[in-house]
Amino acid sequence: MVKEWQLLSKALRPIPDSWYGLKDEDERLRKRYLDLLLNPELRELFYKKALFWEVTRDFMKRQGFFEVETPTIEVTTGGAEANPFKTHHDDFDLDVYMRISVGELWQKRLMAAGYEKVFEIGRVYRNEGSSPDHLQEFTNMEFYWAYADYEKGMKLTQELYQEIALKVFGKTKFTTKGFEYDLAGEWPRIDYREEVLKQTGIDVLKATEKEMAKKLEELKVKYEGINRERMTDSLWKYCRKNIAGPVFLINHPKIVSPLSKAKADNPELTERFQVIIAGAELCNGFSELNDPIDQRERFAEQEKLIDRGDKEAMMPDWEFVEMLEHGMPPTCGFGFGERLFAFLVDKPIRETTLFPLMRPKIE
Q1: Are 81 and 259 in contact (CB under 8 A)?
Q2: Domain 25-187+245-352 is in which class?
Q3: 152 with 145: CB under 8 angstroms?
Q4: Residues of the chain with pLDDT under 70
């Protein structure tokens, strides 16, 4: 009964059997097109991920934030402590870096330029190890809000996460990595110093580096860099694995917060917050440091760490300090990424990435 027939494309290889084919994880991710073709639930996951970012963008715009684009190639990386990807700009004959944050130091310049609310959703690159919670390339969102502090930032963050939960997933109760938690209601707060002291017996503000190193050895925690900042951070990371959340972690020590404003009543601590869910940090926000003298001193400390071989220390940006000398209003900054989506669907992050980086197959 066929009246007409036309070949649309050559198919020289058979589609794998949906039951027996593509069971090896690396093979699935390497041939993602076949994985998606054979798995309708996986295809649906990426529609949901697109909705995740759509809800985020809509929420920010309804709150009066202006969407911007900032450079992804930088002379100096800023906004995070991470090892960057390095490349070369042929025309300028200049070594440059792929950004490790969504334009934090650029968005702060926009605060000095007179904008009051800006945000950006974009790709970030970090030349670090892979894990179920980490990739070298991923999407983040960051906002900067003039004349706001970390208290206002926490309120807005809670509202954003709750809206994502309801509009993307239709619920507030989730299970991730064996942790059960509910995003509804008011989230409690925990103190960085008190939580580490409670779980390890170490006071991160008073303990000696020798005492901290000894405790880390007892806890069998591996850490890089023999310095107080790295050891403080490693002790906290040991503790956070026991917290289901959602909670706001507050009162971070100044030594692990080079861009955060110090607390007026205790300059050893900062006005910083992180959301802890299922044993992980799923955002970073703070009252931004806008004192150029303090910022210059903190960048100088980070430069010393770099000189001692700390690959994750923050590169100083002296032009940013010059901007602060012109005056930047009090600002709240915040960032979170697609790791939140991976946690809410309880999957390793590369499973929620369409085409994760894979080693080439050796024939």
Answers
A1: no
A2: alpha beta
A3: yes
A4: 18-21, 225-226, 311-312, 363
